[in-house]
Structure formats: structure tokens, C-alpha cells
Fold this protein.
Amino acid sequence: MARRVMSIGQCSFDDGAISRSLSRHFDADLVRYADGEAALEAIQAEPWDLVLVNRKLDRDGSDGMAVIRQLKAETATAGEQAVPVMLVSNFAEAQQQAEAAGAVPGFGKSNLEEDLFRERLAPWLS
């Protein structure tokens, strides 16, 4: 059965690239959400294997870290048995901030064809 990956705030092009990389390396389906509000409802309503949050949401440029903080405050995405949340960003400082907020180590869009992408996602999607 395919794993379910939620993508929050990516543009269509980036979601397509992430989806293609997921398909090449994992049995996973990507479901797109434009913002954190709709995503929070979906997380509470159905099971997910991984949540990817863009550093800046495509729809309005809002901060993906705010979405991560919201997610980590929710029962489904907080604590040890939670759905893992991962930042999508090439910026090391943003990755450090996300991890400090409770996200698992993420990846950048420039890493989609590299070992780092597979290594970071494998614990959640293999």
C-alpha cells in the first residue's frame, strides 16, 4: 500500500518535481495543500506518513515555520508517535530552525535527485 505524503505550500512545479522523485524512490502518493489551515483539518481526519512544509508558502508567501509550529502543537503531529513533519528548504539555517521546532531533518529542492533526499525520507516511507 502506498504511503501518504502531505505537501504544504509548494508551487505546482515543485510539487510535481517532488512527486516524481517520490515515485522513483518510494511507493508514495503526494497530496497537495496550499496552506496550513486545510492541512491541519486533513491531518486530524485521516492518516498520513509524512508532512512536507515549504519554507515560504507559494499561495501568499507566509512563513512555513509558522505552519510547522502549528503542526507540532497538534496531537497528530506532536510527540513520539506523531506524523513526522519535514521542512523543504535549501537553507541550512531554516532547516536548523525547523528541527528546533520539532521537525525531522528535511531536504532542499536542489536535493531531489541526490542520496540526501532518499536518506531523509526512507525512515518514513520505506
Summary: The chain has a mean pLDDT of 91.
